[in-house]
Amino acid sequence: MSEKKKEHPAKKERLHARNKHRERYDFKVLIGCCPELGQFVTENKYGDPTIDFFNAEAVKTLNKTLLLHFYGLTYWDIPEGYLCPPIPGRADYIHHIADVMSTSNKGEVPRGNNIKCLDIGVGANCVYPIIGNSEYGWSFIGADIDQVAIDSANKIVASNSNLKGKVDCRLQADSQNIFSGILQKDERVDVSICNPPFHASLEESQAGTLRKLSNLKNKKIIKPELNFGGKEGELWTEGGEKRFILNMIRESKRFGKSCCWFSTIVSKHSNLKYIYRELDEIMATEYKTIPMGQGNKTSRIVAWTFLSVEEEKKWVQDRWNRK
């Protein structure tokens, strides 16, 4: 017998207003879209349908179903062990960065294939291009240092007619570079996005995973199984999030006239002071911080530009408002 019914909020209010995942999952509808999800759906102690978020295969199948149901895919898969990101949070980034771009465009989000977004670390999952193209019609360059990830993303693109010709996945041959070797001479992108590796080492990543899973299960977990997967470069990098973002900011200066808005997720609040100091030192003309929240997790986006007011106006007129 289930316990007394738990009251749930009607909407996940911390998610962006345009996020399609603010409602509770309708598992009946989702299973209708992807029947294989049914084997993972059970009832929790309150009698609500759910999945075991401790089960990597269940999480992957749920995410696949969300992408098929909400974003018009017919195929999605990733190699074993690669990052399987939670879709609602990824969608939030896309919607928030769309709002940042709207501030340059008299409050209107720029839409269509002529808007090009650079996804730094596209991953094997290709999730940001999937959502950004579905929601706003943007085209994407997806960059990654991992050939397996690039091959997987390319397969996703080739297997979905709505993505063909709209996502260009490129291998970053030098892991010390971010924009160099990806953006070609005189190539322009309207926005760059990045969800940087959070941890500084495999050990730190595993310790973080154990904390997350222990909280999820309400008991101490000692084996670091990743329910969302993740490889080096996806979850950890030398110097962690702080060093990665500071390097990206420094390199972005050299491409300051090639991109209207640069951006990144910043998971650790303590890193903001270093990021702001770096942005001041390299003389970004404007930067802003946008809070994000999903469940109990809080993070933020930092976005910056090197364009002057007049350069920004010309950029918008030439690229976003062409007739």
Structural write-up:
The protein has helices at residues 27-33, 56-71, 87-102, 127-136, 147-158, 202-217, 240-254, 272-281, 309-320; strands at 42-43, 49-50, 116-120, 139-144, 167-171, 189-194, 259-266, 286-294, 297-305. With 323 residues, it is α/β, with parallel strands linked by helices. The protein has a single domain (81-320), classed as Vaccinia Virus protein VP39 (Rossmann fold, 3-Layer(aba) Sandwich), CATH 3.40.50. The strands form 2 sheets. A 7-stranded mixed β-sheet has the order 5-4-3-6-7-9-8, with helices on both faces. Strands 1-2 form a two-stranded antiparallel sheet. Strand 1 (42-43) and strand 2 (49-50) form a beta hairpin. Helix 3 crosses helix 4 and helix 7 packs parallel to helix 8. The longest helix has 16 residues, at 56-71. It is globular and about 55 Å long.
